[in-house]
Design goal:
- The chain is mainly alpha-helical.
- It has one domain (about 5-70): 434 Repressor (Amino-terminal Domain) (Orthogonal Bundle), CATH 1.10.260.
- The chain contains 4 helices and 2 strands; from the N terminus they run H-H-H-H-E-E.
- It has helices at about 5-15, 15-25, 30-35, 40-55, and strands spanning about 55-60, 70.
- It has a two-stranded antiparallel sheet with strand order 1-2.
- Strand 1 and strand 2 (about 70) form a beta hairpin.
- The radius of gyration is 12 Å and the shape is globular.
Length: about 80
């Protein structure tokens, strides 16, 4: 997950930095650093990513276009 994907996912969910920080048990400064593109410890990055995925976000890797996010397809 790249910083821009974190921000896109957070905004798509209607979450502020504080909402994501609380859900992932990290500081708001950690979320801000990630979204700014600063490196984080792998475990911290994975924790934030997992919270966003659990909230319904799917991360799209670069595949000739740019990275992105989308909502997971609802299970019927």
């Amino acid at each position: 997950m790249k910083g821009i994907q974190c921000k896109l996912a957070r905004v798509a969910l209607g979450w502020g930095v504080l909402d994501l920080a609380k859900a992932a048990s990290v500081s708001t400064q950690t979320v801000t650093r990630l979204e700014r593109g600063d490196p984080l410890r792998p475990a911290t990055l994975e924790s934030i990513k997992r919270v966003l995925e659990d909230a319904g976000i799917e991360f799209i890797s670069e595949n000739g276009g740019g990275v992105g996010v989308r909502f997971k397809k609802a299970m019927s």
